[in-house]
Every structure is written in structure tokens, then in C-alpha cells.
Amino acid sequence: MTKTSRALRAAAVVAMGGAAAFAGAGTATAAPIDIQPTPLMCPAGIAEAQSLTHTENEAVDGDELFYAINQRSVGGATVSWINVNTGAAGNATLESNPGVFGVPTALTEPEAGTVLSAIWGMHENEAGEQCFLLPGIDLAQVPGESETD
């Protein structure tokens, strides 16, 4: 391996480590949503959209579902969800969260059950471009509150 190759590999490792630290502990263990949103009208695109339940991270309550687009930005996209077991539904906006290094996040409370959600609409990416997101779809199992919580 040449010195240039070693330097490039080291730079890549540092960059990946920095990206993981930037994302914060909460989103580092999040799962990508099943079908990612498709950004239109913004050449830089967006980072991966993720969702997180209590099963993946105890910081999320049992009846909550946490969403993030893993890059620092203003946000603006809409999260629409429906609990297919209870019929409960709602909307939330992905907004820049200073507690997660400016990553746009949304916290919903669909309660226990199978939750179908879509991330869509106008969203400002890290490059400051206005993107229109064709819906990304997620199916998550929200565990609900346990008796010990």
C-alpha cells in the first residue's frame, strides 16, 4: 500500500467517524426507512431518512416513533402517519433540532401497533436547496409502554 493510499484510507476513516459523531447517538442506531423519499429540484439531494422506536433505543418512549434526516439542515418535510391497528393518525414537521446537532427530527406518538408513515413535501437540505420530496414510506412496529416503564 502506498503512502497516498494509506493517507486516503485514514482520511476516509476519520470522515466516517466524524459523520457518526455528527449524527448523534440517537440517530446512529436508527434504521433507514423502508422506501427513501425521492428529492426533486435539488442537485445535492438529501441524506438518508431514518426512524427509531423504543425497541431500537430506550431514549424513545414505548408509544413514540422518532424520525430524522441525517444531515444538518432547516428541514421542513412532513411526516404523515397512521396506526393501522387503532386508526389514530397525525402529521409532524421535520425541524432542525439543536439537541441532535441541527439534524431535522420529528417525534410522533402513534401508540402501540403497526404504524405506516410517509415523509414528503418541501424540505431544505444541507446545501440550502429547496427540495420537493416524493413520499418515502416506512412501516414500523411501535411496542407501546411496558408495565415497568
Automatic annotation (TrEMBL):
UniProt keyword Signal, yes or no: yes
Domain of life the protein comes from: Bacteria
Tagged with keyword Signal: yes
UniProt name for this protein: Secreted protein
Keyword list, A-Z: Signal
Leader sequence segment: 1-30
